Amino acid sequence: MKYDTVIRNGRVVTPMEIIESEVGISEGKIVAIGSNLAASADSVIDAHGQLVLPGMVDAHVHINEPGRSGWEDYNTGSKALAAGGTTSMVVMPLNALPARTTQKDFEAQRQIAASKSYIDFALYGGLVPGNLSEIEKMADSGAAGFKAFMATTGTDIPGDFKNVDDYELFRGMQAIAKTGLRLSLHAENAVLTDRLAEEFESEGKTSIQDYVDSRPPMVEVEAVRRALYLARQAGCKLHFVHLSTGEAVREVVKARNEGQDVTCETCVHYLTLTVDDFKKIGPEAKCSPALRTKDVLDDLWKMVESGAVSAVTSDHSPAPLSMKQDPDNNIFNIWGGITGAQNNVDLFYDVAVKSGRLSILEFTKLIAQGPAELFGLKNKGQISIGYDADFTFLDPDQSYIEKPEDLYYKNPHSAYIGRKINARVTQTILRGKTIYTIKGGIVGQSKGMFLLNSKNRKVNANAVNA
Question: What is the value of pTM for the model shown?
Answer without folding.
Answer: 0.96
